Structures are given as C-alpha cells and as structure tokens.
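Reviewer 2 asked us to include a model.

Predict the structure of this chain.
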Amino acid sequence: MNKFLFPILILLLFAHPAPALLSELNLIPYRLESGSRPMAMGGAFVGLSNDVNATFFNPGGLPWAKGICLNVKDINNISASQAYPTGYGSTLGISVVQTGLPNLPVSAGKSADFSSTILLISAGTKLSALPPLSDNKIADNMGFGINFKTLLAQSLRKTGEPDRTAQGFELDAGLLYKINRFSAIGINASNILPGTKLIWDNGLTEEAPMVLKIGGSSKIIGDIWSPIYLEDQEFTLSYDIETINSQSSSMFFGSEWAYAGTYFLRLGYYCRPQRTSTSFGLGVRIEDWGIDATSYTDPVKGSNDFYFSILYFPEEWVFIKRPVQKYPAIRIADPVVNLSPEDNLITYEDRILISGTAKPGVEVYVSDQRADIDSNQNFAVLLPLSVGKNLVVIDSYLEGGRLSQERKIFRKAKVIVAEEKLVEKQLKEARTPEQKGQLEEAKNQLSQNKDRLETLVTMGVIEVSPEAEFSIEAPVTRGELSSWLVKAANYPLPRINTDPFIDVPKEHPLAPYIKVAVDRGLIKPFPDKTFRPNATISVAEGEDIFRKFGVIR
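Predicted model (structure tokens):
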C-alpha cells in the first residue's frame, strides 16, 4: 500500500484550493467605495444614490444622477466619475477608481503593498423606459442599473515574495425605488458574474465574493412633502446592511443636514467585523459647482484619512429631454386644476411653489422642469425667483397634445428703511391722541415712499444691499442722482476714454452715468468745469431736475 502513498499526497497537494491573496488581507476585489459625500455618511448610500456617486454604490440611482466628480485622498487614491443623462430616464456613466494601500500587515515583520485601477462602464434607466411600463407610476419611480468593471492594473507586493499582478472583470447590478418624495429603498449586488475569477500572473485564481447591500433613506425635514417642513432646511437619514457571501454582515448609518441647498453637514457611523468608526464631512454647493470634504477611518488599515471632492453638475444636463416640435392643442379641457398661485402675484420671496392637480395620464412640466405627480394626481415644484418680473410656464402633455398656462410673478426687492424703526419707537412713546395721529400719518407716508423705493430697487435704478438700511431722509449726492436718472431712463452707457471732468476721472465708478446725465442736459456742471459728484443735491436743484424729467409739472 505504501507504493500508492506518494502519488496520493501529490494529488491532494494540487487539489487543495489555492490561497486567496487578497482575502487574507481583508481586501475585497473590485471594491469601489469612493466619494466624499457617501464616505461622510458612513458609506450608507445604497438607498440614497441621488448624485454622480451612485456609480460607486448603486447604479440603480443613475437615472436621477448627472454631473462629474473628482475624488482625492492622496496621490495613490483618486477616482473620477461622470453620469450623463441621455434622455427619457436613462443615464450612462464612466468612472475610474485608483486605490493604493501601502504597509498592510501580513504577519510579524512582513507587510504588503496593494494597488489597483478599475474602469467602470455604467448604465441606468427607469423601468418606465420599457414600452409596456411607460404609463406605470411604480415603474417611473424605479431605477435599474449595472456596472461593468474591468481591471486596468492590479498589483500586490509582499515582503520577501515576488510581486504579483492580476487581471479580471466583474459586474454589479442595482435597484432603487423611490417610495415617495421623501423616502427610497435600494439594493446593490456586487461581483455577480458566475464563474469569473481574479487571475494572477503566477496562474493562481481568486474568486471575488458577492457583496449584497440593502439600504434606505428618509428625508425627515424638507419641503412640504416631508414629514416635517422647515424653510430652507433639509435633514436626511440613510441606513445600509451589507453581507459578503451571505456570511459576515456590516451596518452603516448616515445623516445629512442641508441649509438653503448650499451648505451641508454630514455625519456617519459604520460597524464592520474588523472595526467600528465614525465619519464627518462638510459640503458647499454654488450654482453648478460643489466642494465636499470628509474625515473618516479607513476600514482596512484603521488610519484616519481625509477625502476631498470637486463636483460639477451643469443645469443644461437634464434628466428627460422633450422633443422640440409643434404640438397640437391638448384634447381635454382643464388638464391641470387647482393651480397655485394666482396670476400677477407680487412677493418678496426668492422662491415660489407651483402646485396643482393633474388629470390622469397628463404629464406636467413647470418651466421645463418635469413635475413628479403622486398617487392622488397632485404635484408641486419649487422654483427660484429673480428680482423683477418672472414668467412661469406650466405645460401639460397628453397623447401628443400640449396646453400651456402662465403665471406672471413679480418679486420685489425688500428694503430696510431706517426711519421705520424711529417712527415705531415714537409711536410706542406717544402719550396724546394728537401725537399718535401725526405719527400714524407719518408712518403711512413712509410706507408709500418705501413702496416706491422698493420698486426703484427692483428695477435696478437704486442699488441697496439686502442687509443695509436705507435712509429716505438722507441727502443724495449729484453722482448718485446721475446714476439713478440714467438707469431709470435706460440710457446706454458710453465707453469712457478721457476724464469727463477735473474731479471725475475716467476710472470713477459713476463716470459713465455722470457723462450721460450732463450730455442729456439732466444735470448741469459747475462753471469751473467741475462736477462735484459728492456734493449734496439741494431741494431747488432736485425739483428743477425732476421737472426736466417730467416727474414734477
């Protein structure tokens, strides 16, 4: 029997599974975690995934994502991603993730350096893009996406062993369902291709374990559709559960507070088998740009790291593009009812809520922004307002037809008048009815003057910063009045190449206005060829000027 012992030992040796080079270092092949915002939220992003970082956590969120992001931890850890909406609820993405982990402990006196570069090709679409589900509201709120991942490079260096390189590819699939306007659930399965392996240059193969992550998000504080409404504030919670090969599990929790859609504070917590830790992050959004910064603990090395991200999400990148064509009139009367607000609204607010009820089957766009219609056929869209005149167009579409409704909204500039506080104080201190009557009359006159002043500020004739107090009784200089008159008359401004007057150099901010006012005969210069822009306008001068302007008869 001994003659069979040696061949059996050889057979057992080669039949034994090859060692997994990455799993012994607690590394998962094709791991994509990146981005300052999701990392600041503890990695709990599968059930949120509403920006370009969806590529890294759940491609099912791609139909609601757009833009470009660049994420930097250090020179060895950089990622970049782009999500581009192609129209009709679908989005394509491409990303590169470079990871470098030096000095990973292997055993006593030994360490390893790991690096990889992964290319992702991503695609996501709403299920309503399928013709049989085009009118299904559940399908319109459900996104499905995939990531195709391939290794551009991967290497492993261990102390006292030859360097190893690897190649391979894998696939992720994700689903995101928006339950309503303030909550969503998602699921992402990574490394789902059966039979695919990571192939090392020495012939060893290593399987990438399937990672399943399920999560949800809830906007607790936000707009009128949220459980709690607070002006200019939003607070979102997110939570994920992860399993690897249906065995070890991890939990992730995140929160995000936003003020005016501009400033963000994020906190996160994760609990993995190796360690637990917290994370913290800040963010700013200004027009088409965003900056995020995060401090978190690396789950592999346990070191405290800093992540920095730059984002760009241009407004012209729209989620759903409507064909540009001439539409026939819609076939039903009043496709949208209970439309609010009323026409010709005058407001001080910088935003306006357009709401209404659509009839079944009707799609609604508010100023080219598609409105989400709930199960009760109600919709609401919050739009920014510019100072002055605003035209809001509400388009209703049904079976190839269109009906447009308009709302003209005038946003007035709000001005703080210094005299108001004085009159209010005097009213409180007044003792006799005669004093109160005189002060009430003065208050009414002041209110009328303030209304005229706000109209002039709204038109851009007078410039007053929102925080500054304006004194109606304060004297007006000749330079200030020149600019007001020229702006009110909408006269064009010339190019100033020489000094208009001895005391008004061409670099003076009011030089163009002063030249136009003098050339038009609105204000006269002095005989000594000076203009004296800082001199106060007298009552007689003012009356003469406004008489020429047609204000005083």
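Residues 281 and 457 are 39 Å apart (CA to CA). The chain has three domains: 34-312, 336-411, 475-553. We have added this to the supplementary material.
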